[in-house]
Write a structure and sequence with these properties.
Layout lengths: L4 E4 H16 L3 H19 L5 E5 L2 E3 L1 H7 L3 E5 L3 E3 L13 H9 L1 H10 L3 E2 H6 L5 E3 L7 H13 L4 H14 L4 H15 L3 H12 L9
Parallel strand pairs: 1-2, 2-4, 3-5, 4-7
Antiparallel strand pairs: 5-6
Helix pairs in contact: 1-3, 3-4, 4-5, 8-9
Amino acid sequence: QFRCLFLDSNIFILYLGADLKERAKMDDAEVGEFVRRLRNLMDEIAALPVPTIAAIDGYALGGGLELALACDLRVAASSAKMGLIETTRGLLPGAGGTQRLPRCVGIGLAKELIFTGRQIDGEQACSMGLVNHSVPQNSEGDAAYQRALTLAKEILPQAPFAVKMGKLAINKGMEVDIASGMAIEGMCYAQNIPTKDRQEGMAAFREKRPPRFTGK
C-alpha cells in the first residue's frame, strides 16, 4: 500500500498538450464528453485516501493546473509558470478549475486569474496561497520535486489511518456549514479511536520513544 502520491511537471505539460490537441479534433458533443471525463478524473484524484503532492518545476497551465489543484499539496519552483489560461483560447476551465481555485486563493483573486488568463510564477503562487512552498530552481531542474520529496518524508512517519481520516474530515467539512463539518470531524475521530495505531501513539508517548505505526 502506498502512503503518498507524487505528480510532477512532466505530467502537467503532457496533460496540457494532449488536452488541446485532442479537443481540436472533436465536435461539440465529443468535447463535452471529453471534458466530463477529465472532470471525473480530477474528482478521483482529489478523493484518493492518501496525501497527494504536485511538484511543479516547469509549466502547469490550463488543465495542467487543474490537475495540480486536485492534489492536496503543491510545491513549485520559483521560476515555474502556472495559470488557468483557457479564456485566452475561447474556453473556460472545465475540469474543476472554477471550483477548486476559489477554494484555494479566494473568490476575488480566482476570478481575476480566470478572467485574465494570467500566468504567474512560483513565488507569486506561493504569496497568494496557490502553492504551499516555492523554492529556487536548481541546476538539475527538479527543485520542486526535491522539496516535495522532503515534505512527503515528513508525512510518511505519521499514522496512515489518522492522516486518511484527517484528509476526509477536511475535504468533506469544506463542502458543508461548520456545524455539519464538526459532526463529520466527530465521525472521523470515532473511526480512529479503536485503531492499533492510536494505542501505539499513546504508548510511545508514555514510554518516551518514537511510535511505530502500522496503519492498523
